[in-house]
Design a protein that fits this description.
The chain has 16 helices and 13 strands. By secondary structure, the protein is of the alpha/beta class. Helix 6 packs parallel to helix 7, helix 10 packs across helix 12 and helix 11 packs antiparallel against helix 15. Its cofactor is pyridoxal 5'-phosphate.
Length: 475
């Protein structure tokens, strides 16, 4: 099959081919995939996917490059920014931009902070080590030095005093999470923002994951600590609408407390013979499809609908947390948001084997490797679609843990640890049972155990090389 056949293929046949390609994908609906996708399930309005698709189609060919040419897109963007600002306690001065995802929002937050300080030759970013990797990506792209602050390995929390101590004269931004993705814990935003403000430094709250749920959970009576623009010293925030606002990928919003803070985010260039390029975000040409779909979904669900979805998700989160707590050998991380994360409390329960056993039962979780003194864990992103499946998951979790115990420890192939530091990804892939087309082995415990044992730099090299192996066209 080729994307450019000699003669065109009928539309219905093309759609059949697309469906065939999708057969190997993990399920995006049904509450069995605990990462990557956000599904309101039966708790959401009927026909939500169809509405989003139809709205996307109305503006798929609209170009966000020039808002004066397409004022409809400008109006929808401003509406989305205003909605996010209201949810996150933004003052009337709040401004923002719609981006293509959380990573773009974070890159732009770092760019704005860096460019606001032209007097700093070697700008630095301070953040807890649990902050999202997209902030490290932003630092790498923008040549900003990264200062990560350790967290307590038992509580997984950062000491605000340690964050304050990490701030230097070259620091242009302090970032924290609400919540951290890996474990779902909310950083102590108030003292961190206060320390940043005392040093005259911007403070960004990465609420890409929790920004659309934490305010609703608070309204439901959950003890959510202050984390948004109600906290003095918070200068910018990011929130992904394609997460718990349940809009299609990819729509995020980057908010600034006022226009002066946002100004360095823009890029403008007039020193060429073409049109003057002025961009608020990284992309120049942008499809209006995702923005129109997001606007339509927010309009359709409404504030009361999101409160109901949050209540359903809260119920599912509590149910999953209870299921984990009921299984001997597992240790539940304290639940503060819509993440259920757990570790192994017994030497005979290998989390990577457990993830395989859950996958064999149709549950797709996200294993997370150890980091320093922090042990490996399993991450579950909980959405409203999970609620009807809690009892089923609880039963399967118990049987999966029993199977993991029976399986025993993971034995790495002889010599593989010696190979990992120098072997290529292709050599290791063949050694570990990957198919020539990049297909994964039936069980991933050996692969994950190997990656868990590798230092982060080696793990990065191997996974980058493996991704490069996959991303090669067939001729």
């Amino acid at each position: 099959m080729t994307a450019l056949p000699e003669h065109g293929v009928p539309a219905d046949e093309v759609l059949q081919e697309l469906a065939k390609l999708r057969e190997r994908d993990l399920p995006t609906h049904g509450g069995r995939l605990f990462a990557y996708v956000y599904d309101p399930g039966s708790a959401g309005p009927a026909g939500l996917d169809e509405l989003a698709a139809a709205a996307h189609a109305t503006s798929a060919h609209v170009n966000g490059l020039d808002p004066t040419a397409f004022p409809s897109l400008l109006a929808m963007e401003n509406d989305l920014v205003a909605a996010a600002a209201r949810v996150l306690s933004g003052p009337p001065s709040t401004v923002g931009s719609v981006t293509g995802g959380g990573t773009e929002s974070l890159i732009l937050a770092v760019k704005a902070a860096r460019d606001a300080r032209p007097d700093v030759a070697h700008p630095r970013l301070v953040m807890p080590v649990t902050a999202h990797a997209a902030l490290a990506k932003a630092a790498s792209y923008l040549r900003v030095e990264l200062d990560t602050v350790p967290v307590d390995p038992s509580t997984l929390r950062v000491d605000p005093a340690a964050v304050a101590a990490a701030i230097r004269p070259e620091t242009v931004l302090v970032a924290c999470s609400a919540p951290s993705y890996a474990h779902g814990l909310i950083d102590p935003v108030e003292p961190i923002a206060a320390a940043a403000a005392a040093a005259g430094v911007r403070c960004h709250v990465d609420a890409c994951f929790g920004g659309w749920t934490l305010p609703y959970l608070r309204r439901l009576g959950e003890p959510i600590p202050p984390f948004d623009f109600a906290v003095p010293g918070v200068t910018s925030m990011s929130v992904d609408l394609h997460k718990y606002a349940y809009v299609p990928k990819g729509v995020s919003v980057l908010l600034h407390r006022d226009e002066e803070l946002r100004a360095p985010q823009y890029f403008g260039y007039a020193d060429w013979p073409g049109y003057t390029m002025v961009n608020p975000v990284i992309s120049s040409t942008r499809s209006g499809g995702p923005i129109a779909a997001a606007w339509a979904v927010l309009r359709h669900i409404g504030d009361a609908g999101y409160l109901a979805l949050a209540a359903t998700t809260l119920s599912a989160t509590r149910g999953l947390a209870a299921a984990v707590s009921a299984v001997p050998g597992l240790s539940l991380v304290p639940v503060e948001s819509t993440v259920v994360a757990f570790m192994s409390a017994a030497t005979d329960v290998n989390l990577f084997v457990l993830a395989d056993e859950l996958a064999a039962r149709g549950w797709h979780t996200q294993p997370q490797f150890r980091h320093g003194s922090m042990p490996a864990s399993v991450h579950l992103t909980v959405t409203a679609a999970v609620a009807p499946r809690v009892a089923e998951f609880a039963s399967d979790l118990a049987s999966a843990v029993a199977a993991a115990r029976a399986f025993g420890p993971v034995d790495l192939p002889p010599g593989v640890l010696e190979l990992v530091g120098s072997a290529s990804a292709a050599e290791l892939a063949g050694f570990l049972g990957f198919s020539p087309d990049g297909g994964l082995p039936d069980r991933m415990a050996v692969v994950n155990t190997l990656l868990d044992a590798a230092p982060p730099a080696v793990r990065e090299r191997l996974l980058v090389s493996f991704l490069s192996l996959l991303q090669r066209p067939s001729w």
